[in-house]
Amino acid sequence: MKVRTMQGRFPIERIEARILDIPTIRPHKLSFGSISRQSPVIVQLWLTHGTSGFGEAATIGGPSWNEESPESILHAIHAYLAPVLLGQDGGCFETALARMDAACKGNAFAKSAVEMALIDAVARSLNLPAWQLLGGKRHQSLPLAWTLASGDVHRDLEEAQLRLEQKRHRIFKMKIGARPPAQDVAHVTQIARGLEGRATLTVDVNQAWDGNTARRYLPQLIDAGVTLIEQPVARWNVEALKTLTATLGDRASIMADETVCTPQDAMVLARAQASQVFSLKVAKHGGLLRTRQVAAVAEAADIGWYGGTMLETSIGSAASAHVFCTLGAQHHGCELFGPQLLVDDIVTQRMAIQDFALQLPDGPGFGVEVDLAQLDRFDRARTGLTPVHIDLGQRAASPST
Ligand code: MUC
Ligand code: MG
User: Ligand 1 mean position to 310 CA, how many Å?
Assistant: First the structure.
């Protein structure tokens, strides 16, 4: 039998992952389709002295937001990432990332879930909050956006109204790009009128428009009151982002999301002056440490940051909050509202929201306690649910005649 040598102060003993299936409170409509279920991959990592930590990677609509799916993430973790980490010193985070990179190209979401569980486990064994291992916190709370994505003006306005009254959200992001642009402008204009003077409005086009459409319709959205515009064009279309930033940048900020994944992507955008804000997401950057690298490029290039989400449960959202709270002052708040979009959660207590801001949980690790019974309840291995597919609706339904 092969005997594994245990390395360093925090040897990694065991890594397990599973897919959960959690329904959303309402259909969530994006430019590329609609979802009614999230399928996060949850990782648990044990150190030899018994402490364990949790990590998460969530995708939206299987592999429809980018290349990774819950099933590919689970496979990458079990087949390629866990084997190169077992027995290694978990305290050497960069070495762990290098080993995962050497064993497996890409697969940023899968790596981020493992790195998250590792940082949680090491922080817990030191009885420290994770932010302490990530450079120290600079914010105790962050303004928290909510996404209006029901597709219906009245429902969107009702949702926004309630959240304003509850003092939970006063930044609202609208997901557009599924309908003809003129209809989107009409929808956003109605919402802007209904919320005038009480909220900040942003839109996420999720790559749906080409450069010409964006040049024509974004000024109309800005006239309606939109101040932050996320990923209006395809992720490869840096030229269009650059033109939009140069022509509209003094009236609203252009934010890159799908275009900015690696630190190298960040450098390309910074050199081209192709966006004023980066949407940071732990999963697409490949973990908490890489998120800090992308944020460092942003800071050096005078680009702001926004704390993005892939609609994670409270595990991934709390981990994201820990790294976002270590970043600089030039921010546009965050949208870590994933837990509120799900019918139920997998932690005993969610992060608090007060005065329109998410409060950083300060306990050991990511400061949230996982409810193991809830993990079992939603575990796909138990429920036998099949992979989630994005609902394309009328989009791409049949060839045009
Ligand atoms: C995205 O592209 O930003 C984040 C919030 C939301 O509603 O969808 C996601 C994905
Ligand atoms: Mg986005």
Answer: 6
